[in-house]
């Protein structure tokens, strides 16, 4: 993997069953290692500057089904099965707010 100058790569989380995009967060080498070893998703929190085991507080863990890297090896796609809502707001996905465009119906 090609980590950025802060040692991070973006990780897109996709529902392994529905294909729905659930969230985007960042991983460093340690969170990627823990994710691959444990089968549950770990991230690196840019705001708290620490590792973050997704679901440790909420109980809504993400169970890894597959990990893919893009052609440039600088972004990850993680297909996972969530235990519950993924977003901290309680929504199933973090992508629930549509941005209106001129072509929106």
Describe it for me?
By secondary structure, the protein is mostly beta strands. It has 1 helix and 6 strands. The strands form 2 sheets. Strands 2-1-6-5 form a 4-stranded mixed beta sheet, with helices on one face. The protein has a two-stranded antiparallel sheet with strand order 3-4. The longest helix is centred in the N-terminal third of the chain and has 10 residues, at 29-38. It is globular. It starts with 8 loop residues before the first strand and ends in a 23-residue tail after the last strand. The mean pLDDT is 96.
Oligomer: single chain
Separation, N- and C-terminal Cα atoms: 40 Å
How many strands in all? 6
Cα-based radius of gyration, to the nearest Å? 14 Å
Helix content: under 10%
Give helix and strand order, one letter per element, not per position. EEHEEEE
Strand content: 35-45%
The whole-number mean of residue pLDDT values reads 96
Gross morphology is globular
What spatial order of strands do you see in the largest sheet? Answer: 2-1-6-5
Low-confidence stretches: none
Quickly count the helices: 1
Tell me the structural class.
Answer: mainly beta
Sheet bearing the most strands, described?
4 strands, mixed
Write the layout of secondary structure elements.
Elements: E1 9-15, E2 21-27, H1 29-38, E3 42-45, E4 50-53, E5 62-69, E6 76-82
Q: What descriptive keywords fit this protein?
A:
35% strand, four-stranded mixed beta sheet, two-stranded antiparallel ribbon, 10% helix
In short:
By secondary structure, the protein is mostly beta strands. It has one helix at residues 29-38, and strands at 9-15, 21-27, 42-45, 50-53, 62-69, 76-82.
């Amino acid at each position: 993997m090609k980590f950025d100058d802060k040692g991070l790569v973006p990780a897109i989380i996709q529902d392994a069953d529905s294909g729905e995009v659930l969230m985007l967060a960042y991983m460093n080498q340690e969170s990627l290692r823990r994710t691959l070893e444990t089968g549950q998703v770990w991230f690196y929190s840019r705001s708290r500057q620490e590792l973050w085991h997704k679901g440790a507080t909420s109980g809504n863990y993400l169970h890894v089904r597959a990990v893919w890297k893009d052609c440039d090896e600088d972004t990850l796609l993680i297909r996972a099965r969530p235990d519950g809502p993924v977003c901290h707001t309680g929504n199933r996905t973090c992508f629930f707010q549509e941005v209106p465009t001129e072509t929106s119906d």
